[in-house]
Amino acid sequence: MIKARGLTKRYGTVKAVDALSFDVRPGAVTGFLGPNGSGKTTTMRLMLGLDRPDGGTVTIGGRRYRDLAWPLREVGALLDARAFHPGRSARAHLAALAAANSIPSRRVDEVLRQVGLDTARDRRAGKFSLGMGQRLGLAAALLGDPGILLLDEPVNGLDPEGVRWIRDLMKSLAAEGRTVFVSSHLISEMAQTAEHVIVIGGGRLLADTTVGELAARSASLEDAFLELTSGSAEFRAAHRGPA
Amino acid sequence: MTSAAPGIPGTPAAPSAPAERLRGHYGFAQVARMEWIKLRTLRSTWWTLAITAVGSVGMGVAIGFNTRNAAGDLTNNALAGMVPGLLFTGVLGVLAMTGEYTSGTIRATLTAAPRRVLLLAAKSAVFGAVTLALGEASAFVSFFAAGAALRHGIAAPTLGQPGVLQAVALSGTSFCLIGLLGLGLGAIIRHSPAAIGVLVGGVYVLAQMVGAFSHSAGIYMPILIVGNSISTTRTECVTGPGNGAQCIHFLSPWTGFGMLCLYAAVPLVIGGWLLARRDA
Ligand SMILES: Nc1ncnc2c1ncn2[C@@H]1O[C@H](COP(=O)(O)OP(=O)(O)O)[C@@H](O)[C@H]1O
Ligand SMILES: [Mg+2]
To answer: Is B115 helix (H, G, I), strand (E, B) or coil?
Structure first.
């Protein structure tokens, strides 16, 4: 269970996350939706203790991330930007992370196989395509066999086969009782994966509900999302008319 | 991404037992293992270390080979290659930290080991141990190789002579201490070019200027400490031929060593403090 309470983060004058409170429950895929720049990545960084909040708290199973005993065995995270050194192989990258949490080294080969990188495991990761980099990030998230997964726009750069694969993976992880928190700016993607959605705009909570309930608010889930976020979309195309 | 097949759809994450409950929590030993794997799995690490060692030994040999004055401080001459060598470990130290930021690895590192002061301590310990081993090996090999290269009937110094073992052993620490200075600067500055600039500018350029401007301040500069204080076997004034007693004072070996330790420790402490407070 993840609990955010009054979470606030400012970057200079920008309020990236503004008094955000929500729970993420186990056993379901929870979608984290919001337009570009709405604060999804920032929220995830706050959850992982990468950034310090200016206010509020976020806890994982009652503890702050930095107080976790074996972080990678409890939480697996994929952030939206690359988090590996271009000169290191996929295998070396994962082996280093595994060592930090006493994760048996056989898990490195298991997750590499699982994400389909076993044939590329000894190549320098700097030569990876966007999709392969994404798969390596996912392998790192799965490494510790964690009960909680935080995935920031995981389908970015994946081919259709990869998109289908990650969708099925998230569902099966949730079916095993794990907490799956996945961000996206694509409502259609979430419609196929998530049962629950948390919608934010301009760093503020706009909805915390089931996909079914949200869809029922308007003609379609997409319409409901656009209505909800119309007042807060940061980088709206100038030509788009009113909803 | 065309060649690699994706995993079988629907396959759950873990065929292995779900997170067998481990007692205790991750600590220094685990984080140090991570840092050791990260250090040794970059080819640039090995290249840099090899060039550093070969370069510093080669310079000692060249100086030994060309020595004509048996009255000089032959030990100090043999260790002359340590001064240019420490620049490489200094830069390697910078990159060990800034490379985490430029590549984004810092995010993965901190999710695996969120206690940041512990992380920097483990990184420093691993990097310090590797560069200390390299530095001591370089210093001793330089000493013996330079002694073997002496010509003109000049007898090679031995470790048993007064101050020699101390000079060689203390010089061997310079790679590690300047490497840690680089690591600390990397943690403070976080950008590779800027941190390398500060390191090179501070250790080489600024030190030269301070030395030229005021000798009494210059003796506290890292290069003069490595080149003179810790690598000398002479404690008394050097008597130059013809021009009387020529007294050039440098810090004593152990004072110099203490200064180098401070040069390493202060940036590391500041870097650790900033690392713990700043957003990653
Ligand atoms: N490190 C940062 N410095 C300054 N502004 C930032 C930083 N990170 C994010 N922001 C700003 O915070 C807001 C939220 O960004 P982000 O969390 O990345 O949104 P999302 O992931 O939903 O697209 C944006 O306005 C973005 O420009
Ligand atoms: Mg984002």
So the answer is: coil
Task: Please say whether the beta carbons of A103 and B2 come within 8 A.
Answer: no
Domain ranges of chain B: 27-277
Name every residue whose Cβ is closer than 8 Å to that of residue A172 and which is 6 or more positions away in sequence.
Answer: B10, B11, B12, B13
pTM of the model: 0.91
Q: What is the ipTM of this complex?
A: 0.92
- Is the Cα torsion angle A196, A202, A204, A206 positive or negative in sign? negative
Interface subset of A 12-71, CB within 8 angstroms of B: 45, 48-52, 65-66, 68-71
Pocket test for ligand 1, best of A9, A15, A41, A182 (most atoms within 8 A of CB): A41
Atom of ligand 1 nearest to the CA of A9: 12
Cβ B156 vs Cβ B74: under 8 Å: yes
Q: Whose CA is nearest to atom 20 of ligand 1?
A: A37
Could you say which of A86, A96, A142 has the minimum Cβ distance to residue B13? Answer: A142
Q: pLDDT tens digits for B168-209?
A: 999 999 999 999 999 999 999 999 999 999 999 988 888 778
Rounded distance between C-alpha atoms, residue B229 and residue B17, angstroms: 59
